[in-house]
Amino acid sequence: MLRSLATVLLAAAAPAARARATTLLNASSFDGFVGGHDVTVVFFFVPWCGHSRELLPTYERAADQVRAALEASESARSCGFAKLDASEDEQIAARYGIEGYPTLLLLHTPRPSALGGAVGAPAPREFRGERTTAAIAAWALNQLEPRLPVVRSVAEARALLHAPPGAGVGGPVVAAAIALIPPGHAPALLSAVRLAAAELNSIPWVHCPSADAADIGRELAHGEGGDPLALPALVVLRAADGGAAVLPLGPWDGPESGWEVPQSGGFAAPLYAQSGASGDGAASAGVPSGAAHRLGAHLAEWADAHALPFLMPYTASSAEMLFGTRADFYALLIHAGPTLTSPVGQRATGSDGADALPAAIVRALREAADGGLRGSFAFATVAAADFPEIAEYVGLIPAPTAAADGAPGASTATGAPVGWPALPALAVLQPSMSLKWAFALGAEGGTAGGEAGATAGGAPSAGMRLANPAQLNSLLAQIRHGALAPSLRSAPPLSPPPQPVAGRVTEIVGSSFEAVVLQPSWHVLVYVYSPWCGHCLRFNGTLGEIAAELQPIESLVIVALDGTANELPGLPVGAYPSLFLYAKGRKDEPVEFTGARSRTAVTHFVLAELGEDESVRLARSAEADWRQTDGAAERRSAQHAAPSKVEL
C-alpha cells in the first residue's frame, strides 16, 4: 500500500547525500524532458538576477525532497525538476509568457484516456506561494497527486483554520474549502474538486462525505439556525471574520452539449449533475466529459474570491493577505474614521464594522460584488489617519489649513483626520499595470465620472473624479473592461497646448500624454527625465541633436516629460533618463531603449524599430552623409585632441 505523500515528505525533509534532482535544459532538450514526466517544474532564471541566485538552492532542496518522497511512497507518477536560462533560450520563456525572474512554472503532460485519445492537461501554473523549501515541495506534490483529506464534523472543518504555517499551504491559513459531497454523487465532481485544490494551493481543501453533510454544511454556513444545505455544495470558511460562503454544485440534468462553465463571478446557478448520462455514451458521471479541468479552475477562482470578507480592513498584518489574492483590481474605500477592528461581511449585520462607513457607499460596493465583480476585484477599507501615504498616492491633497489645526493625518476630536477633506474616497488599483483610478465620493446628486476640481470639503484632489456612490457598480465595471481612463498625476497643462513637429523636442505633461503619444499617425519617441538628474542634464543636448538628425522622418516626433511631476499609464520607468518608442500601429506595445545614451545608439534604435519606409530610408541616407562628412571630421578632430603616451 502506498504511504501518504505528506507523511513521507516530512521524513524526506532530512538532509541526505544525493545528487541534485534538477536538470539544466535548453531549447533542444526542453520538450523531450517535459514529455517524459507527468509533471515538470521549471525554474526560469537569468544569471545576473540576485533573486534567482538566492532562490536556486531552495529550489534544488525542494526537488530533492519531492524525489525522495516519490521514491519512498512507491508512486507511479513522475515529477521532473528543471532549470532554464531564459537569457540563452528566450523563445522558451516567451512561449510561456515569462516576464519576471525567477519564475517557477509547473507543466502537466497530457495523459492517455481509457476511452482513447488523451486527457487534456490543465494550463501551466505559476508558483505564487512562500519561497521556502517546504512550500515549494508541498506545492509540487499537491499538483502531482492532489490530496483531498476527509473531515466528518464541524469541529474538524473549523480546525483547518488554525493549522500551523507550512501545513501544506505555505503560510498562514486565511480560509478553508470544504466539499460537501456524500456518496452517490458524481465521481467526476470530486475529481474537479481535487483539481481545484491543486489550482488554489494557498488554502486547505477537504472532502466531507458524511451522511449528515447537509447539517454539517448548515452549521458551518449559518450556525445553529437555518435549513440544511442542498447538496452537493462547496463551503469556504474564512479565518478573518469567521464567516462562510456557499456555492451550490447541483443538480444539472441537461445534455452535455448544453453544459457551460459560468463566467467569472457569476456563480449564482447550480453547476453540476447529481446523475445523468454524458452525451458520448460514457458511464453516468454527472459532469460532462472533458469538463473537469474547466470546473476545477472555476471552483478555485470562486474559492479564492470568497476567501476574504467582503470589505477587509487594511492593516500592516492584513496587507499580505489582501494582496495575496488572485484579484486583478483592488478597490480601497478610504474613510475618515479609525481603522476598523473587524471586517465588513457580505451581509449587513449591524456589528460587522459597517456602521462606521457611509451606508450608501457600502451598499453600492455590495451590489458591485454581488453583481459579478467579486473575484476580479478585492475590496478593502483604509483609514486615512493611519495610512496617509495611501491617501496621498491616490491624489488626496492635504488642506492648506492643516498646519494650523494639526499635521496632515492627525485626528480631530471627532475622529476625522485633519488635512484630508476629500473623504470618503474610492481608489482602484491595478498593480500588474501600475494603474489607479480615484474617486471623491460626493452626495447622491454628484456627477459620476467628471473631474473633481474640488470636493465637498473644498480642497482640490489631483487626478480625482467626483462620483455618485449609486454609480460605483457601473464605474467599476468600466474599469474592469478597460473603458475608463486611469487617474494620473499631471503637471499643470501647458499654454498653448503642445504641437510636436519633426526635428525638435517638445515638452508635454501627463494630461496631454494620450492626445500626443497615442496619436495614431505619429511615431513618438518619449523621453522621461528628472530635473535633478545629472545624466538627464547631460543628455538633453544630445537629444536635440538626435531630433535634428531624424528630422527627415516626418512622421516621427520626440517629446519630453518630467517623470517626477507626471504619471504615465502603464509605463515602467525604472530610472532616469528613460526612452520609449511608440510606433504607429503598435501603440499598445511601447519599446524601451536600453542601450547607451548616445546619439549613435539612440538613432540606430529608432531606425531599426521603424523599418524600411521611404522616410526611414531618407534618414539612413542622411546618416550615411553625416558619417562621410561631419562624422569623419569629428573623428579626425578627436584623434588630434587625444593626448599621447608621452604627454601622459
UniProtKB/TrEMBL annotation:
Residues 627-637 have a biased composition (Basic and acidic residues). CDD domains: PDI_a_family. Residues 627-648 are annotated as: Disordered. Pfam families: Thioredoxin (PF00085). It comes from the Eukaryota. Residues 8-146, 485-611 form the Thioredoxin domain. Its EC number is 5.3.4.1. Keywords: Endoplasmic reticulum, Isomerase, Redox-active center, Signal. One of its GO terms (biological process) is response to endoplasmic reticulum stress. Belongs to the protein disulfide isomerase family. This is protein disulfide-isomerase.
